[in-house]
Amino acid sequence: PCPHHGDETSAPESASVISMVRGVMGFHAVLQNQWTRAQVESLVGAGRVDDLSRRLCSRMSFGTAGLRAPMGAGFNRINDLTVIQSTQGLYSYLCRYFADFSSRGVVVGFDTRGQEESGCSSHRLAKLTAAVLLSRDVPVHLFSSFVPTPYVPYAVKKLRAAAGVMITASHNPKEDNGYKVYWCNGAQIASPHDKEILRCIEEQLEPWSASCWDVGLVDRCSLRTDPLTQINSCYMDELASLCFHRDLNSSSPLKFVHSSFHGVGHAFVQQAFRVFGFPPPIAVPEQKDPDPNFSSVRCPNPEEGESVLELSLLLAERENARVVLATDPDADRLAVAEKSDGCGWKVFTGNEMAALLGWWMFFTWKENHPEPADAQSIYMLATTVSSKILQAFARIEGFHFEETLPGFKWIGNRIHELSKTGSRVIFSFEESIGFLCGDTVLDKDGVSSAAVVAEMAAYLHNKNLSLIQQLHNIYQTYGYHVSKTSYVVCNDPPTIQRIFSRIRNFDGSGSYPKTCGGVQIVHVRDVTTGYDSSQPDLRSVLPVSRSSHMITFTLKNGVVATLRTSGTEPKIKYYTEFCAAPGQRSAPRNDRTELSPRLSSTDETDFQPPSHSC
Question: Which of 55, 205, 278, 442 has a beta carbon 3.0–4.6 Å from 412's, enabling a disulfide?
Fold first, then answer.
């Protein structure tokens, strides 16, 4: 066990930790990567005990999107050793679960991330993942080049693989990387698989053999195949099923700009546009090629809005393009902006774009299924912290709507379950600009969403409507849904714990707040503890999720506010929404929606969004 160390560390304690580190360094596995070895040696030489303890005294655990952490030396970071250990655990669990594992194999993909100082790159880590499996005679479908994240779950289903691994940290800062695992159904792993894989990892931490470190094994082993050409062709063929107005697209005067945010998306979005009959979108030249440093943006997350879309908007102005599309670095999310006549640019929130895409997917579905009774066989899904606009659609149009816990792993697994009953999910989303049109892939997909948004915009343009105008039409029909979402960064887990403990014990043990901003709270749902005051048995309908915090308050004025921790970043996120009745012609007053919760875990701690950083 590792002792706790504060700013001042006694000589015996320091010597003890440094001795421990030297022992770890002596373990041959850690010495296999010269860059991470040099990082540890440098920290030891500088006596950086606290940093060493953080790196070497804890391990990563599966969160909302698998493993995600900074690259570098240490057991709580992404590096050669932790990826090898994770893959050994994954192999052991899959062997126990699938009798035919040795014939089904595993799909492995990667994005374009890399870090020179630690010698880590997504491509290298993908090869190491493959090497571990190949060393145990397991077939590996390793993509020969970087791919969008949705290609991995798509390939898992198409190739009937036992599982898939995507090496990516999506839109996280450049220092991070990740290890995202998909189950045989094509959805991200969920409980109990995640916990069982972690247990298997911890049972065998020492690399099995020298072959596990051999990145060249993928070039020599006959069990390694490259699925890129087949999967890309099949994906684009199936993408055509989401295209309904190809002739209109090919003749549309509308121009589009696309940014791939220095990631994988450029070539794939260009190809998707061709499938839909569009000319390729105008690429932002500074951002179309992979760059692991994301050198032209302060933050590689298009969800941050206009401040990170500056180059895209400037190019659109020069080219007279009305719509800007931006995929995040692994191309599973999509941001959209539209030129607003006389008012600059409108950057749509995830909730607003979901209202448009949800409307469009039902509109195009209804064109081919005119009988009202047919709607009983289709679903739309959204995470519980996302807008309730799809619920409003469902009430009026007669189809089904369901909510899930935050994270697309819940949506993907629910789509799979519904498909077994003959039901079809035609649209799903999470408010953090994650959309899925159709059910071909069981994860959010920025590539297909970009093409669908382009077709929707072209169709509306032909009707002399903009995306903005159609959004207002939707609200007038189904009721205004006005939301506000933001976050605060908190890098100190004990502080986060105190904040949520304070909320759960606001007026004594087990007592939640009674008011928010002077408005009465009528219901509280806490999925971390399983409590829901709106239910007769006081038990949450949504599954209990003890691995993170999430509390939802329903206010008397109709506002729903949720506070939760992020599963991928050191953030406390909050979500508020006011849902007006259909036919109400104006949005509610700002003082009902511009909620900035003041959350005090102690007298000294006061978080007031939206003062955040990335």
Answer: 442
